[in-house]
Amino acid sequence: MGDLVAGLAPIVGAEHVLTDPVEIDRYSADALTPYRAYYADAAFDRLADAIVRPADTAQVSQVVAFAQERSVPVIPYGGGTGVMGGVLPVHGGIILDLGRLNRLLRVDTVSQTAEVEAGMILEDLYAGLEPHGLMPGHDPYSVPIASVAGTISTNGVGYRAAAFGPMGDQVVALEVVLPDGRVIETRPVPKQSSGPDLNHLFIGSEGVFGVITRATLRVFRQPEAAEYATMEFTDFDAGFMAVSEMAALGIRPTLLDLTEDSEGILLHLLFEGYREGVDAALRRTMSVCDAAGGAGRGPGADPVLLEASA
């Protein structure tokens, strides 16, 4: 432990190498809990040896190279909001907290892209884009605490995924530190037409193939109009048939959530865009749902679904 700290302190500064047991315990877990269907295992009780908080890509590169030379595991840490146990240090090692890499570096309103550091929190990204009339397309419930690179590394899905897809679909380019400390940058082009698409080697990989330190993301114009609607169905099959018909017609709501719970079978919808398009899509959707036996609970019945991205 002493040698590990002694080697890391000159890279990031002694104050950014944490070994306090309380901090170690806090970082050595995410939101994975027994009710999420895992069996208790002694490996899940293992703690990291140190928490390291680099300030930039160069420091990340040096830390990763240092760990590689000593065969010490490195676990990238974003917001700690994952529910799959990705940050659990089952073999000990270094947890690499990317929270200090938190800047919005560039916004291109013409190409509608934003260059962002890995540790930027989604809520801060929303705030940074708002003055430009833009917004991210990814809005999970964890918006106030999830990080950009964390959502890329898990290829997370947010409430607006029906329109914008998972986070990986919004990635234009990446800067990544490879396991040996080398830094690579993929090109910020709209389509990969020569050679493999390297972005998808890292999207959803949870840091296995490299540590994402920067991303260029597609961002989107803030909508002119937005309408919520909630439909209730007598059974799940009827709701599913309505959703299938909407897809066949090319109706693409921003949010589509068909749920079955104690309240019944509910289809939550959000339409966003220009006013005439929103109105037309909402009218046709109501017609489709009526034909499938759905009963409207009224527009705007369940805006709580998007309160995290407000």
What topology does this entry show?
Layout: H1 2-12, E1 17-18, H2 21-27, E2 50-52, H3 57-69, E3 74-77, E4 94-97, E5 104-108, E6 113-117, H4 122-129, E7 134-135, H5 148-153, H6 161-164, E8 171-177, E9 183-185, H7 199-202, E10 211-218, E11 220-221, E12 225-233, H8 236-249, E13 255-261, E14 264-273, H9 275-291, E15 295-299
Parallel strand pairs: 2-4, 3-4
Antiparallel strand pairs: 1-2, 5-6, 6-10, 7-11, 8-9, 8-10, 12-14, 12-15, 13-14
Helix pairs in contact: 1-3, 8-9
Helix content: 25-40%
Distance between the termini: 44 Å
**Main sheet strand line-up:** 5-6-10-8-9
Shape: elongated
Topology as H/E string?
HEHEHEEEEHEHHEEHEEEHEEHE
Q: Structural class, from helix and strand content?
A: alpha+beta
SS elements, strand count: 15
Which runs of at least 5 residues are low in confidence (pLDDT < 50)?
Answer: 301-310
The major pleated sheet works out as:
5 strands, antiparallel
Protein described:
The chain has 310 residues and is of the alpha+beta class. The protein has three domains: 2-97, Uridine Diphospho-n-acetylenolpyruvylglucosamine Reductase, domain 2; 104-221, Uridine Diphospho-n-acetylenolpyruvylglucosamine Reductase, domain 3, CATH 3.30.465.10; 225-309, Alpha-Beta Plaits. It contains nine helices and 15 strands. It has helices spanning 2-12, 21-27, 57-69, 122-129, 148-153, 161-164, 199-202, 236-249, 275-291; strands spanning 17-18, 50-52, 74-77, 94-97, 104-108, 113-117, 134-135, 171-177, 183-185, 211-218, 220-221, 225-233, 255-261, 264-273, 295-299. The strands form four sheets. A five-stranded antiparallel β-sheet has the order 5-6-10-8-9. A four-stranded mixed β-sheet has the order 1-2-4-3, with helices on both faces. β13 and β14 form a beta hairpin. α1 (2-12) runs antiparallel to α3 and α8 (236-249) crosses α9. The longest helix is centred in the last third of the chain and has 17 residues, at 275-291. The radius of gyration is 22 Å and the shape is elongated. Mean pLDDT is 88; it is low at 301-310.
